[in-house]
Amino acid sequence: MRNLLSLDAKNGSAWALMGLCEFQLRNYDAALADIQYARVLGMSDNKEFVNVARYHAGILMTRSGQFELGYEALRDFAREGNESPSVIEALGLNVLRMPFLPAEAPPDRRELVLLAGRAAFYQAARRVQDAERAFKELLTRYTDAPNVHYAYGVYLLLDAPDAAVAEFRRELQISPTNVPAMLQIAFEYIKRNDFESARPFAQQAVDVAPNLFATHNALGRVLLELGKIDEAIKELETGVKQAPDSPEMRFALARAYARAGRKEDAARERATFLELDKQKRTERSGPQSVGGIDAKPTEKNPPR
Fold first, then answer.
1. Is residue 299 scored above 90 in pLDDT?
2. In angstroms, rounded to a whole number, what is the distance separating the alpha carbons of residues 247 and 31?
3. What's the rounded Cα separation, in Å, for the pair 82 and 252?
4. Are 157 and 188 in a shared domain?
5. Which long-range contacts does 7-12 make (Cβ < 8 Å, 24+ apart)?
6. Which pLDDT score is estimated for 287?
7. Is the residue at 41 inside a domain?
8. How much of the chain is helix, strand and coil, in % rounded to 5?
9. d(CA 12, CA 238)
10. Residue 143 falls within a domain, yes or no?
11. Would you say residue 152 has pLDDT above 90?
């Protein structure tokens, strides 16, 4: 395999196969890196092979805590109608934010994982009534399990944001240090331009997880809109140092610099944002996904 790559370093299928071999050897970080690179390069037209690579990318991203990206890789299986047990289990681990491969999942949590996976499958397949019924069963049977209310809140967020915020608050009652729940609430209030309501959740997220760039993104954006420009820039610069490859961080910092009248700095960050955004789109869905770029990142979900 390495000989093949030495002859054709841009062979996406070869990189994917290398990643799958690394997976079998339990070299999981290398496996994910190779498969992701393969997805950037593009793979063969063999749909079964592409699906195997995509599935492994999804479960490896879940294992590494990249839950949103893992969900993006796995959800298309549901949209294609693939409800195999392996897909259901992978989705369950993902939406419950359990950083395990399916083979590593705690045996005593299997029923919970499968029920959550079924709800997530219906959600991704846009089978609304089935998803609602599955989530209700999940909430009834496992109401105190970590991330159950969080998963339901994410499901509700687009069409019922008030109910979603209520679920995220319930999650915080069960898991007071659940940073994703704090961020979801903060970003929902940011979306509503209710920055005073967003501020305590963003601040709490920074206090609990100061090394997570998304917390500084949330707090920096809130402070900027409250007119605390210097404090906002400090938070956003911290976030950029932690995640220099994050388009969301670069975009937010560009706005803050522009608000401060630092035109050259704003232009530099904006240019970096555009380049990183293009790269991230390619990494997520392959080169065919790269086209026009939105004027600004979506506000629906917090950047991670």
1. no
2. 24
3. 38
4. no
5. 10/41, 11/41, 12/37, 12/38, 12/39, 12/40, 12/41, 12/42, 12/43, 12/44
6. 40
7. no
8. 75, 0, 25
9. 35
10. yes
11. yes
Helix axes 85-95, 47-63, angle to 10 degrees: 30
The total domain count for the chain is: 2
Determine the Cα angle at 295 with ends 186 and 222, to 5°.
25
Give the lowest-confidence range in 3-17, 51-65, 246-260, 286-300. Answer: 286-300
Hey, CA dihedral for 221, 223, 224, 230, is it positive or negative?
negative
Same domain, 166 and 184: no
Give the Cα-Cα-Cα angle 206, 208, 213 (nearest 5 degrees): 40
For residues 138 and 235, membership in a common domain is answered with no
My answer on whether 160 and 274 are in the same domain is: no
Tokens of 115: 């029920």
Domain enclosing residue 87, as ranges: 83-176
Q: What is the pLDDT of residue 304?
A: 34
What per-residue string of b and e applies to 196-232 under the rule 16 or more CB within 10 Å gives b? ebbbebbbbbbeebeebbbbbbbbbbbbbbeeebebb
